Amino acid sequence: MALAKMAEVMAQQQHEIWQLLEHQQQVLDKLKPVGSGERRAEGISMPTYNGKIGESLQLYVSAKNITVDAADNHNRLVAMVASNLKGQAAPWYTFNQGKFGTLNALAEALQSEFVPPDLQERLRAELFQLKQIHYKDLEGYVAKFRQIICQVRDMSNIDQITWFVHGLVTRTREEVSYRRCTTVSKAITVAVHTLKDAEIVEALDQDVMKAKWRLLFPWNEEF
Hints:
This is Retrotransposon gag domain-containing protein. This protein is 63% helix and 0% strand. The chain is an all-alpha fold. It starts with a helix and ends in a 7-residue tail after the last helix.
């Protein structure tokens, strides 16, 4: 009788383990990153520049995929960039149209008109205040950090890593610091992997706990 009871318990435990493994695989599948080669084709739009504080003029010009110092067909290049000026930058260009013989001249004029002279100090102040806890998830923090850091000038690679690590939550900050990353990209990768590992461990811990409770209280449908 005791052997039969033991066999029944072992069979039930094996069933619970198989269920647990199946759920773990589902968790791992959900946490797999999207392939870097995938791109969404819907909703593609050309970049615009509004002349607002916080916008990057350099990113706008770069996103147009145009060489600022290109010697051929300057008028066409100027018109191409000007066509996507929005907000206060649009009427400004209309008022000054005809004054820019080259794309480089237009970029310099936009820089002088809309980019504050203390931009670098403002960007560094933003980095100091940037914290992961102010965002819904790590992805939001990383996106904001990249938006700021790509506009910062004359900052060493080590300083960039330091500022990124500075804003992370304690657990992730400790892991990234321990890895002694040599590039910002590597630090971001470590942070993302650390978060995913933590999510997997948390999910597995919850599954194990539920499995134990189901074994102890099989009549309780809440588990």
